[in-house]
Design brief:
Elements lengths: L3 H6 L10 E4 L10 E7 L3 H8 E2 L10 E8 L6 E10 L10 E7 L3 H12 L3 E2 L4 H8 L5 H11 L4 H11 L4 H23 L9 H19 L2 H9 L1 E6 L6 H9 L17 E7 L2 E7 L9 H16 L2 E7 L6 H10 L4 E6 L16 E3 L8 H14 L13 H22 L4 H19 L5 H8 L7
Parallel strand pairs: 1-7, 8-10, 8-11, 11-12, 12-13
Antiparallel strand pairs: 1-2, 2-6, 3-4, 4-5, 5-6, 9-10
Helix pairs in contact: 5-6, 7-8, 7-15, 8-14, 14-15
């Protein structure tokens, strides 16, 4: 990683660290039209000049694209025909000198270009090191850095929009405002401690009002934590039931694919089949499980056991019932195993039955005819309704905080509440400052104004190499 201490000692300056290099695009064998090798650091341009042959009089200027060939610096053998993009400090992603080789896609050319960069003195970048340098050089704050990671990993349009809002500073701005208010309160209190005889009495009503406003805002932002987790991770939905009730047909109809084999024979599905969907902006991992029954076949026994395990760990269980056969003893046995889980009853094959069976009360019921592609929209609406009932949807904020930010906000909330208790107990002003500083520290951890090297390592280690 970039040397954290050196970067902090040079605040206000641009940190041109040792040159790092990495492939900045996904490497897929024999696929992809373009691959990019990115360099950042003090030697990035000199390495580019050693490797890139730009014919004619093309100017090596910032934010220009050069055409030419990448050549071995000793043998001058051509490695690839490519484009070169120059982005000189401070107008670059990292605020260092940045160079990108835009090579042909695939594996060989881009790997050879990266190896040449390393042979000329560049160091292979660690995960997230480009973004870490952008943070250390003041181009972005920590919330924006985390939003970049969220944007890359977004599994739905809503998740991408939430990440983009964070990248645009819509989380950092209110957090900075809250921290600034706390600093103002602290300054007023400390001034009375140091210069009590020279200043008018402390306006405690104003301080109480300010603390209440800050605490209310912190609590409001905290309500987005569940939504953030939902948008990033989604929910896991298990389709369970006895054999031949249409579980696999339901998965295929829902995912609009033929992921699962469908036959009239009970026990066709022997293992858990997965499909990934997006339901009204929420990523959903759907698991079609083996029919749960007493099985003599060893392979089917393993499948049944896995089905039972999946049902106990899923965020939502879809207990599927055959409308033609009605509610059977086997259905009851499965119901007893999953009734304590978040549960939705799916009555399938309703197109083949004139009467509907009596089902356990207290659970939402959706009617489907999966083989005819019917009832899928009703199923999705029922799932979204369950999510909203659990209050996992967004509060009135464009962005949604992650677990690290939620933990810091919770600490700030606790400290602010403690300040209020301290004031109510009429304790000396010195006691007020202890929890005020704790709140300021916690709020600063969110944006990166108060952060340790270990926290940075933890955050950026989750990034992909090249970002």
């Amino acid at each position: 990683m970039v040397n954290f201490t050196s970067a902090q000692e040079n605040q206000g300056k641009i940190y041109q660290g040792e040159t790092i290099a990495a492939i900045a695009t996904a490497v897929v064998p024999q696929q992809g039209s373009v691959s990019i090798v990115r360099l950042s650091g003090r030697e990035a341009v000199s390495i580019a000049r050693l490797l890139f042959d730009a014919p004619g009089n093309q100017p090596w200027e910032s934010h220009r694209i050069l055409y030419g060939q990448i050549r071995h610096p000793q043998t001058w053998q051509a490695i690839d025909e490519a484009l070169l993009m120059l982005m000189l400090s401070p107008r670059s992603y990292t605020r260092e000198d940045v160079v990108e080789f835009h090579c042909h896609g695939g594996m060989m050319a881009v790997q050879q270009v990266l190896q040449l960069c390393l042979e000329q003195g560049a160091k292979l970048a660690q995960p997230g090191e480009f973004t870490l340098r952008a943070f250390l050089n003041g181009r972005i704050d920590l919330t924006q850095a985390e939003s970049i990671s969220d944007l890359v990993g977004a599994q739905s349009a809503q998740a991408a929009q939430s990440a983009l809002a964070g990248l645009q500073g819509k989380l950092a701005q209110p957090i900075r405002h809250l921290r600034s208010t706390c600093l103002e309160i602290l300054a007023e209190v400390e001034a009375r401690i140091d210069f009590e005889d020279d200043l008018p009495p402390l306006d405690e009503d104003w301080i109480r009002a300010q603390l209440s406003d800050v605490l209310r805002s912190v609590q409001q932002i905290l309500t987005t934590a569940d939504r953030g987790e939902l948008l990033r991770s989604g929910i896991k939905v298990a389709i369970v039931g006895r054999p031949n009730v249409g579980k696999s047909s339901l998965l295929n109809a829902w995912s609009r694919t033929d992921r699962a084999i469908v036959t009239d024979l009970p026990g066709t599905t022997r293992d858990v089949v997965e499909s990934y969907l997006v339901v009204q902006g929420i990523p959903v991992q759907v698991l079609d499980t083996a029919g749960i029954r007493e099985a003599s076949d060893r392979v089917e026994q393993i499948g049944v056991k896995r089905s039972q395990q999946v049902a106990q760990t899923a965020d939502l269980v879809l207990l599927t019932i055959d409308a033609v056969a009605g509610w059977t003893l086997e259905d009851e046995e499965i119901y007893q195993q999953v009734k304590h889980r978040p549960l939705l009853l799916v009555l399938n094959k309703v197109d083949l039955s004139d009467t509907l069976p009596n089902l356990p009360v207290g659970h939402p019921i959706v009617q489907t005819a999966a083989a005819q592609q019917q009832g899928i929209e009703d199923l999705e609406e029922a799932i979204v309704t369950l999510i909203q009932a659990d209050q996992l949807q967004a509060a009135n904020l464009d962005v949604a905080i992650n677990q690290r930010q939620a933990a810091a906000l919770t600490r700030a909330q606790t400290a602010l509440a403690q300040v209020q208790e301290t004031i109510a107990a009429q304790l000396p002003l010195d006691f007020w400052t202890i929890d005020l500083r704790a709140a300021i520290q916690s709020l600063g951890e969110i944006t990166g104004e108060e952060v340790t090297e270990s926290v940075l390592d933890q955050i950026f280690s989750k990034f992909c190499i090249g970002k």
